[in-house]
Write a structure and sequence with these properties.
The complex is a heterodimer of chains A (111) and B (114).
Chain A (H helix, E strand, L loop, with lengths): L4 E3 L2 E5 L4 E6 L7 E6 L6 E6 L5 E4 L2 E5 L5 E6 L8 E8 L6 E3 L3 E6 L1
Parallel strand pairs in A: 2-11
Antiparallel strand pairs in A: 1-3, 3-8, 4-5, 4-9, 6-7, 7-8, 9-10, 9-11
Chain B lengths: L4 E3 L2 E4 L5 E6 L6 E7 L6 E7 L2 E4 L8 E4 L6 E5 L8 E8 L8 E2 L3 E5 L1
Parallel strand pairs in B: 2-11
Antiparallel strand pairs in B: 1-3, 3-8, 4-5, 4-9, 5-6, 7-8, 9-10, 9-11
The chains are: A mainly beta (111), B mainly beta (114).
């Protein structure tokens, strides 16, 4: 069974601070995805990382896939209140027909 | 519609009752997924359809849960003899598999079993 563990579970910071969220597994994934979920809504895909060591940037968000494709990180620079939400990492099973999600990191950015 | 839609958005029922949750996927998406998200946790896989058939139902917790997709589009998740532990947000997602593993999620149905 492939498991994904996210840390921290909760993070409360002030606007303008930087933060990093981690997603770790003992299993190798062909790719990892990061989603953001707001209350009352479904997860929305932010990025997919595929290649070991890959770094992708989305405005103030930087995503990195570990060299061994077992872990990933999300770094947010100069966080804003609009970044508040639940950040989820997810990876496909070998057949590619389901996603395994981490437990999520709930981020609150205070103005 | 432009995205995945789910109805109802909220469902409150009593223990022992039967409920049906509906999912309308993005038009043209051949794959459809159901997940369950308990409070404070990430979504957990329930079942996957490719077309009309359930290709993988290994995530269904027990035989009280059943899902159908008779025409390869709309899907209904059915829960018999509901229990308080079934309370959760039920998420539906769809994808066009030839474009990779990206899944598009609906807003979910929040089920509360009293």
């Amino acid at each position: 069974t492939q498991l994904l563990e996210q840390s921290p579970q909760f993070l409360s910071i002030q606007e303008g601070e930087n933060l990093t969220v981690y997603c770790n597994s003992s299993s190798v994934f062909s790719s990892l995805q990061w989603y953001r979920q707001e209350p009352g809504e479904g997860p929305v895909l932010l990025v997919t990382v595929v290649t070991g060591g890959e770094v992708k940037k989305l405005k103030r968000l930087t995503f990195q896939f570990g060299d061994a494709r077992k872990d990933s990180s999300l770094h947010i620079t100069a966080a804003q209140p609009g970044d508040t939400g639940l950040y989820l990492c997810a990876g496909p099973n070998n057949a590619g027909n389901m996603l395994t999600f981490g437990g999520g990191t709930r981020l609150m950015v205070k103005p | 519609g432009a995205g995945v839609s789910q109805t109802p958005s909220n469902k409150v029922t009593e223990k022992g009752k039967y409920v049906e949750l509906r999912c309308d996927p993005i038009s043209g998406h051949t794959a459809l997924y159901w997940y369950r998200q308990s409070l404070g946790q990430g979504p957990e896989f329930l079942i996957y359809f490719q077309g009309t058939g359930a290709a993988d139902d290994s995530g269904l917790p027990n035989d009280r849960f059943f899902a159908v997709r008779p025409e390869g589009s709309v899907s209904t998740l059915k829960i018999q003899r509901t229990e308080r532990g079934d309370s959760a947000v039920y998420l539906c997602a769809s994808s066009y598999e030839l474009e990779g593993p990206e899944q598009f999620f609906g807003p979910g149905t929040r089920l509360t079993v009293l």
